[in-house]
Request: fold
Amino acid sequence: MNSNNIYLDYAAATPVDKRVLTAMLPYFSEKFYNPSAAYLPAKHLRGEYETQKGLLANAIGAKAPDLIITGGATESINLAFTVLKQNTGHCLISSIEHAAVRESARSYSAGNFDEVKVSTTGLVDLVDLRQKIKEDTILISIALVNNELGTIQPLSEISRLLQEVRESRLKEGNLTPLYLHSDASQAMSLLDLSVARLGVDLLTINAAKVYGPKGIGALYVARGVKLSPVTFGGGQEMGLRSGTENVPALIGFATAAKLAKEHLASSRRQYQDFTRQFKQIIEQESRVAPLWLGDPKHQLVNFVPVCFKGLDAERLIFKLEDLGVYLSTGAACAASKGQKSHVLSAIGLSDQEIAGSLRVTFGQGNQLEDVKKAAHLIAEVVNQEAKRLKLV
Amino acid sequence: MNSNNIYLDYAAATPVDKRVLTAMLPYFSEKFYNPSAAYLPAKHLRGEYETQKGLLANAIGAKAPDLIITGGATESINLAFTVLKQNTGHCLISSIEHAAVRESARSYSAGNFDEVKVSTTGLVDLVDLRQKIKEDTILISIALVNNELGTIQPLSEISRLLQEVRESRLKEGNLTPLYLHSDASQAMSLLDLSVARLGVDLLTINAAKVYGPKGIGALYVARGVKLSPVTFGGGQEMGLRSGTENVPALIGFATAAKLAKEHLASSRRQYQDFTRQFKQIIEQESRVAPLWLGDPKHQLVNFVPVCFKGLDAERLIFKLEDLGVYLSTGAACAASKGQKSHVLSAIGLSDQEIAGSLRVTFGQGNQLEDVKKAAHLIAEVVNQEAKRLKLV
Reply:
């Protein structure tokens, strides 16, 4: 990345942290063995793999045997949804889930799924959730942090609600299991994840959003939850995900998770400061009043999604890119297909408001000066566009 | 790897070539963008990804849109077998396929599969193959190079045979499609692969066996072959393998494929020399006559599988490891579970012969001196064991 440019799209991709890459390097060359081989250096490598898997598991309050290492968040999510192959039934997702959850729900439930409403700030409506749980609902999948709004869901409350359902099912002799999965892809760099505290049965985590390498993710699976394999073969990862272990990537993931945990408090303080100053500058300088999206009380601190009503976000992005500021309208995979954001639609924005919405997400590479400069530039471009459109 | 040690298990894993790693490095840090993002640097990255995918495709005589990038060979093989989700029917594999093919055949055909016999050198029996093709056979999966014997299958002959079957089906009004898949994981470093010449409809290739990174593979898919997704989500890789593209790994894979192609002739000459001298030393010094396995006329030149009848290969490996020589009995994932090699069983070896068999595979890190030293050490250890067991 050119150092003069300001990248504000850390929710789409994070660079690999130098310390992560340094930790990975020996595993490409010297320690390249197949960890299933029988000679000592390969066995040592197996040991290192399991130790690092244990450290990664620890980062979310779990143990190594609870984690299935996958090729990324999408695969982890797909693996979670295979509970619907073990038990045919209904599933529930929020109306603002990522495509990986939406498409998995559609596919693995063979269309037998519903979406739970969210508030205008993107919080899951617990009353609607309770009402939509059917007799045969098996899986509920709610992302911990929404990838467009940064809204943090009250997962432990949802978990308690599910516990009540489980208990009432037990009384009625209904033996249908009920599992809670959460896609925590966006969360790991800034939240202290604990599977016990969250009350989840299944949790997706992802290296590529926490300054680790692309191509590796993990699924936490609580004891007793039965899944079906995503790939068949040599039987690695307890038979659920066959294929030679990607040792360098796992080392990178574990290192990235450890670094995130160590810097959690300082990162949060830093991004709080960024967010405050960024908003202040926009509010002072923009002649179109910004509509800050998401839930100010429950929002990941590096997320600043914002709507400039009446403007065209695509044009803003285009003009900002010329000025060296990189940001997006929403999920990259959706944006690339020109799809209207289903997330912004679900929180009740009008088509005009959706068309005027940007997603700003801060990250490690940003300095306060960059953030302030970006805010000035965004306000400037907003004002130019507003003038052009004769809105001001 | 300690430079005093001699690694002779390149069929299990290859280290990442320095030039491959160098090519990958910028994509971890500077060029880390999500290739689906809308700003210019991300679009450039998308361009680079597609260009490199095209180069990788070229290496097997295909074009970028014919390749689906996956998380490795196992996933590619699983994806190939999803043709059985599109058309319910029978499939055929050889009796010496890797676990990924065997388990995929079992699972995707719901048990409706047969195994084709092989000769004592591991060549597929074409008469048996023809006889086992049923009216509803949809998929035939035969590895180009066997991972234990190095035997190279006559794929183009098999392809011609399938063409005859297709034509006779057409005459009979049988519209069942018939596809040929080959797992070429072991082949890329020493064979000039061409999908047209091989006559395959589906071809699995894998970076981790060709001095590229772990965690990436590809499946060549001929036009018109319909597959089902292995993962659902953002719709990447033509909807067959959703998940953010692993750009650094793809760059590494394409670079590794290019290097392999450039050095094909010289690598072959080198390994031919290694193999000749290695066999000569063993034959001269070993007091147990070596039984060279596989097909001398159709064998990948870096494969030297050998049986020392009456000895225990596990013990040989253990003793050789103490002397710094690393080799294996067969496929690492099977060996780690203590399974008897189904490959050696299929070529008609007795249990005693199987128990005395080693797989030696040469690679980039070997020098002629290492190879000769290893041969002397193997003969020495064989002789010690033979003496201990009073065989000589």
Summary: Chain B has two domains: 6-15+264-388, 18-262.
